[in-house]
Amino acid sequence: MEQKLRLDERQIRRAREAARAIAQDVDQFISERTTVAIERTVLRLMGIDGVDADGVPLPNVVVDHLVEKGVLNKGVAFWVINAMLYYSQEAQTIAEQVAGGTIDLTDIPPSDPRMIVDKGRELAHQGLARIRDNRLQREQLIQRLGEGKRPYLYVIVATGDIYEDVVQGKSAARQGADIIAVIRSTGQSLLDYVPYGATREGYGGTYATQENFRIMRKALDEVGEEVGRYIRLCNYCSGLCMPEIAAMGALERLDVMLNDALYGILFRDINMQRTLIDQAFSRMINSFAGIVINTGEDNYLTTADAVEAAHTVLASQFINEQFALLAGLPPEQMGLGHAFEMNPEIEDGFLMELAQAQMARQIFPDAPLKYMPPTKHMTGNIFRGHIQDAMFNLVSILTNQGIQLLGMMTEAMHTPHIHDRQLAIESAAYIFNNARHLSEEIFFKPGGRIERRAQEVLQKAVEMLEEIKRIGLFAALERGMLADVKRSITGGKGLRGVIEREPDYYNPFEEELRQQLGLPQREGSTYER
């Protein structure tokens, strides 16, 4: 990419070096731990699904059984595979018997460890083959149908009823949307289980369930054939079930998933230890599935001032990039987040927004950046709001963003109606078409306001990252260095679900994913034993 802003490459290298050290420090912490959500994910990838007589998901039943026995630190895979070998039964049957109280996994005589490892690899190959097939199907559909031009037009549906979401999602695709994001029901990120089946009663959004994923995927495939282009589906793998929902999305061919531990820590008060451990495994699944992740740096500017805190967004993007690389996620799947959130009353605010967007584009040239619309300073004046969104769209096409979450003129008034989305799509399509190649004609004045602003933000981000490197990410979060929100390392939701691994801990899916993604194996892996 042409470097239109003269940014100091030494500063960028310093930022990346600091972010890499921050991420590696956390990764060392992660390597010694697992969580109840990761273990439930292993069971889902083995093919275990459904609920017990009380409506509790079977993965929860099995994991809770082993937690109660105090043996989950060995890994759920060991216990379930041992039972499968002893009884010559499938994983689903074993889970159902645990739920029925007819077997205790810890009472079964141990099998030959080599047989357990062989069976584990077989199950990992089978489970990941389903995901690989979905990725291939996506690629074939895009090749046959084509797709929209970037920036992809990204719109949300949030009715609470999956079947009404289908109606609205199809309508948005016909209007020109490229990505349909189904917003999750309020508070689902705080549930330590995944609801089961199709749902019609969400509040502020629709429950993320595997059946709901399947229903919406089928609907978007249908409308994709109708409009002659592939329509992407987005949902959320964040919160206490981050890796489980990542696996469910991979199994149902979702294309984009919001996935950011920092967002969960700061804005949902998820325990930082829990969600950073969960994030590592979830991102390996996303990488293997070809799913583009979206990160939540844009939210920082809802609690902190967009002018003063711009560098925190950039610093977080650097950290998220390094976490993603450690999970084998390539830059092409990193939808790093940022937002058009400066107070419209500020003089030259548009220039500062342009500086931020162009700077991010140059620093992360291969990432399909996710650009978020104005929300904090929307007032209910729909005419001014429509203009603010138009300015946002203009910055996006000028700086070659990858994913454009469309602003709604009725932001903060109500959940968007179909006609709100249509106006948003029409505005973005008009501006993108009329200014399609404007970026090729635009250069920024050396030493001008835009360039100086970008250099200032970069410098502050470097200083912040080097301070976080010195004290560690956990301490930085406790001090409120991101988004002006302070969190405790032992506070928040989900800490009880963090478990220290035994030396012989076994997770065949993590080992196989690391093998497939070219990542180093964890110490004690059966690939090393």
TrEMBL record:
Pfam families: Lys-AminoMut_A (PF09043). InterPro entries: Cbl-dep_enz_cat, Lys-AminoMut_A, Lys-AminoMut_asu_sf. GO terms for molecular function: catalytic activity; cobalamin binding. SUPFAM superfamilies: Cobalamin (vitamin B12)-dependent enzymes. It comes from the Bacteria. Residues 5-511 form the D-Lysine 5,6-aminomutase alpha subunit domain. Signal peptide: none annotated. This is Beta-lysine 5,6-aminomutase alpha subunit. It comes from Thermoflavimicrobium dichotomicum.
